[in-house]
Amino acid sequence: MSSSLWPLGRRRHEMPVDFHVWAATHTGYARAHNEDACLVGRRRLSGSVMGWHGVVDRDSPWVVVADGMGGHVAGEIASDVALTAMQAHLGKARTTEDVVEMLDAANYSVHEAMYGAMERRGMGTTVVGALLGRRHALIFNVGDSRAYGLSGRAITLLSTDHSVRASTGKRSPLLFQSLGGTMNRRPLMPGIRQVELADFPTLVLCTDGLTDLVDDEEIANIVSRGPGNPADELVSAALREGGRDNVSVIVVCAMPETV
What is the CATH number of domain 17-256? Predict the structure, then answer.
């Protein structure tokens, strides 16, 4: 059954809240370059050290994090291609079926880019994102980049890890699903979940560069501590623990709308 964020007869911009967003990405201390990329509305963040804070545009209410897969050639190209393909569909996405179609298109684009050059063979990316509606958020992911919902200091994992680690508890980079990452394009079974913003007024989207080094309880403590820049503070926490991977974080807070 379809799950639509914007009921028929209502326009997208009739949201009772503003979405304040903090975003940060950092290469870390072990990688030569940053294969992560973030999308906040129509803004793209990538590169060695980048950050942004503001209110998400009402005509583009979405946030996405992509993690070019470590160990694969041209992971930064994979994450960029995936976000570009998704951006073309996000403005039209309303339902879970729309999100599945969008992710399939991104998967196709990554594979097409892979076939364009021999050195890109096997490149891929994980992705996690949220479409922000008037009262709900539609959370989606492929791979092991994560989305959390927070209410006070209580933290809940909203995404689905598609990894060996999720099923066995062992630390392993092996993914069951990704955009690209295989020589032959495979069907996707993305994690998709609609949540009430009243239940989770704060959302955290991040790559495993954070979650491999900072546990869920500490993520909740840092975000709930406020005021400040929670995305930068989470990135700094990962760097203090060694920063052995690229790390990217988006924090979204639903606040009463301003006139």
Answer: 3.60.40.10
